[in-house]
Amino acid sequence: MGKHKQGISIVIPTLNEEKNIDELLANIMGLEKSSEKPGEKTDYELEIIVADANSKDKTRQVAEAYGARVIHGGLPGHARNQGARFASHEMVYFLDADVRIQDKDFIGKSFQEFRERNLDCAGMDNYLLWSGNEKAFSKSAANLVFGVANAYIKGVQNTKNPRAVSTAMIVKRPEFITLGGFDENIYWGEDSELAKRFASSGYKFGILDSVSIKVSPRKAVSQGSVRFAKNVLRLNAYRSKHGEVSREIYNQLTGIQDYFARANPG
């Protein structure tokens, strides 16, 4: 049996995420680090980079305890770009701190599908992970939003205007760097803009079929499921008609100021 070793860099933007980063990194440590197919075994070497926006809690200490490299971050797009610049490997996985991975073979499945489909940038389905204490209506409304979003994003993946969610994305680092990474002037939708830029530059974008992730419903809960759904629709409508969403436009359309913005004014 042939044996191969592949390196993967995992970049996680954080701001006061000590509980979430602890759970995510424990989650990652429990994943299978190898995969097999007929006549071939692949071992995966994981590098974890936490791009932190000056957390006031123990995010840095928790990350370092797991062996992660902690660098200076900022707003999510900038933090992901910084992480990719410091990454050692060709394959870069961007994960948010509140992501949870329930498939132990997540690394092997995602890596193999990415390679077999000759992708340069990929997204995957996002589902909500509920604690069980939320109201049934709120859960149903938020689940509906995510279900429709997953179907829509998968449906337009091969068009000239694909969509993506940066909660969990995979890129080839050389191509990502060549294209300039996430556009840091975009406040909302920078993930979809990146996917579109990959596709329009002759690279291949796709949504993975073999894996998905779960994510905290905290945004939907904090805004209220109905308001959250309206904000998503409002922002998408603006983006489709007028172009990318700046911080000012985001605040005007939603009436809220994002968590990262409050900690990173200017």
Describe this structure in words.
The chain has 266 residues and is an alpha/beta fold. It has one domain: Alpha-Beta Complex (Spore Coat Polysaccharide Biosynthesis Protein SpsA, Chain A). The chain is built from 11 helices and 9 strands. Strands 1, 2, 3, 4, 5, 6, 7, 8 and 9 form a 9-stranded mixed sheet that branches. Helix 2 (59-65) links the parallel strand 3 and strand 4 (69-72). Helix 5 (136-155) packs parallel to helix 9. It is globular.
> What is the N-to-C order of secondary-structure elements (H for helix, E for strand)?
EHEEHEHEEHEHEHHEHHHH
Topology, number of strands: 9
CATH class: Alpha Beta
Number of H/I helices: 11
Structurally, how many domains make up the residues?
Answer: 1
Sequence stretches where pLDDT stays below 50 over 5 or more residues: none
What structural category arises from helix and sheet content?
alpha/beta
Going by CATH, the homologous superfamily would be: Spore Coat Polysaccharide Biosynthesis Protein SpsA, Chain A
The termini sit apart by 55 Å
| Whole-angstrom Rg | 18 Å
Shape from CA axes? globular
Kindly identify the CATH topology. Spore Coat Polysaccharide Biosynthesis Protein SpsA, Chain A
CATH architecture level-2 label: Alpha-Beta Complex
Largest sheet: 9 strands, mixed
SSE layout:
Elements: E1 2-14, H1 18-29, E2 34-37, E3 40-52, H2 59-65, E4 69-72, H3 76-86, E5 91-95, E6 99-100, H4 106-116, E7 121-128, H5 136-155, E8 168-172, H6 173-178, H7 190-200, E9 205-215, H8 218-223, H9 225-242, H10 247-254, H11 259-263
Parallel strand pairs: 1-3, 1-5, 3-4, 7-9
Antiparallel strand pairs: 2-3, 5-8, 6-9, 7-8
